[in-house]
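Researcher: Let's try something more involved. This one mixes different molecule types, so please make sure each is placed in the same coordinate frame as the others.
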Amino acid sequence: MSNTALRKAQKEIGNWLNTYGNDLYSWAYYKTSSKETAEDLVQETLISAFKAFDKFRPGSNPKTWLLTILNNKIIDYYRASNTNKSFNQSQLQGQNLENDNYDSNGIWKKQEVSLWSNKDEHLLDNAEFLEVLNKCVSALPENWRRVIISKYFDHKKGKDICKELDITSSNLWQMAHRAKLQLKTCLNKNWNTI
Amino acid sequence: MKTLMNLAMISCKQAAELTSKQEFDSLSFGDTLKLKMHQKICKACKQFTQQSKIIDIALDKLLQDKKSKGIVLTTEQKDKILKSLQ
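Model: All components are placed in one shared frame. Result:
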């Protein structure tokens, strides 16, 4: 790029940062649950956009273009942190979780009386309940949390979640199931005591 | 007959797994039948199914709400990003 083109690109990227920066930042934050990571990913996205600025077709939507770049960065980030170690760890946690919930015959252990049920029609409008749930989601192992975020935040289909997280379809529902068991246990523990 | 019954009986653990699997994959005819039979006779699983539904709706509400709110970059953060472009 010539100096003039370079300055033009810089100026345009600066404008995009002001216009779309918060959307990109929010998106990256909810996909990674870390503000530092989200900031890094936004920065990397704009650097990539800057380097590839001549590939941007004038008249097309900059936000769509930036989000495509950002989503690729997020996938790279997932792949990099999706080590065998974290998978084994989540397998182990899954085992403990199952021992907590079922006896050796696979029958539910006696449940503590749960104070949240579908009889309480205001439960889902209760901000405190949602806040407890929020804390429970943050406490999930990272792999499981990603599955939950992809399903409920992005409303992604099973096969797309598998592709994004690089997992098989049985991995997917097993993780979703364990996440749910853990959320149930967490709600039982923390909602009753408020 | 007894073996047939044994084949059809699944534990609560398996029933709960099938309940979750169902959200992503369609179950085989056999699994659907086993799950339905189990749910008919098992009260504890009925509670899990209900709670699972509540968690479903609540998660959707919580995360869609978050999606609409978003977070904001500070001026310092923006400056830092702009500097990295030079």
